[in-house]
Amino acid sequence: MAGAGERIVVDPRIMGGKPVIRGIIRGTRIPVYFILELIANGWTIDDILKEYPHLTREDVLAAVRYAARVLREEVVVEA
After folding, report:
1. Which residues form the domain of 40?
2. Helix H or strand E encompassing 11
């Protein structure tokens, strides 16, 4: 299954089904949570692109959009 403009892939055979950025180069899939952790730790998009040159700005933004959509659709059940 893919989403966020086909850049984000969720496949049980890849990283246990965690959403990842589809890699252009085989084996370069990066989990969405990793991108979010980098941003949470103060990395800018430019920092990420410099360290991971196979990613594009649109890849990083797709990861953020995917996470926002998942959280927006999350259902909270009170105990």
Report:
1. 2-73
2. none
pLDDT at 6: 80
- Single out the residue of 1, 37, 31 nearest to residue 15, CA to CA: 31
Tally Cβ neighbours within 10 Å of residue 15.
15
Q: List beta partners, residue 3.
A: 8
**Interatomic CA distance for residues 78 and 67, integer angstroms:** 22
Instruction: Give the pLDDT confidence of 37-57 residue by residue, as tens digits.
Output: 999 999 999 999 999 999 999
Burial (CB count within 10 angstroms: exposed 0-12, middle 13-18, buried 19+), residue 7: buried
The domain total for the chain is 1
